[in-house]
Amino acid sequence: RGFTYKAEGPLDLRLDPEKGVSAADRLKEVTREELTGMLAENSDEPYAEEIAREVLKRNRKKEYIRTTTQFKEAIETALGFLPEEERKEAVVKSCKRCFQALRIDVNSEFEVLYSFLEKLPGVMAPGGRAAILTFHSGEDRLVKKTFQQFYREGIYQDIAKDVIRPSQEECIQNSRARSTKLR
């Protein structure tokens, strides 16, 4: 369903293909301001403006992005202004961030997480503890701010001040662990 930029496939990104609109359809209808905001807020993409400009340029020409490869090519074109020695690494990082941002958007992942965090105090036993594992900065920011807000409001009696990160050994055993944070 297009969850990687490394393989050709449809740009769908929906966790449930029966619900919502595909990432390709979302890109077809998005405004430049929406896409810039989506890329910046959902994945801290530093080249959000340039990438949004390129996607919208293709939309105006009716060259809609329908596949993972087309999205990657749009990102490569948008970053064409970078010096050649920096460009390859920047494209890889931007592809990861942009696919993430688009996946978060089409699946309403932040809305689902926020809804979960809002309901959490009501389902916890008195004196209970909650531990949330996040995988990127946007999720972590939302969890951290919600925990802090509930602490200030007296809903939570205590919150951990520090985040727990995986050890180097754990990251070697499981490379996906490197970006995780436990709160």
How far the N terminus sits from the C terminus, by CA atoms, comes to: 31 Å
Largest sheet descriptor:
2 strands, antiparallel
What is the count of β-strands? 2
How many helices? The count is 8
Radius of gyration: 19 Å
Helix content: 55-70%
Range of strand content: under 5%
Q: What best-fitting shape do the alpha-carbon axes yield? A: globular
Low-confidence stretches: none
- Return the average pLDDT rounded to an integer: 93
Give the spatial strand order of the biggest sheet.
1-2
What key phrases describe this protein's structure?
mainly alpha; two-stranded antiparallel ribbon; 183 residues; 2 strands
What does this structure look like?
The structure is a single chain. The protein is mainly alpha-helical and 183 residues long. The protein is built from 8 helices and 2 strands, in the order ααααααβααβ. A two-stranded antiparallel ribbon has the order 1-2. Helix 2 (32-43) packs antiparallel against helix 3 (48-60), helix 2 packs across helix 5 (84-106) and helix 3 (48-60) packs across helix 4 (68-78). The protein is globular. The chain starts with 22 loop residues before the first helix and ends with a strand. The mean pLDDT is 93.
Compact description:
With 183 residues, this protein is mainly α. It has helices at 23-29, 32-43, 48-60, 68-78, 84-106, 109-123, 137-152, 168-173, and strands at residues 133-134, 181-182.
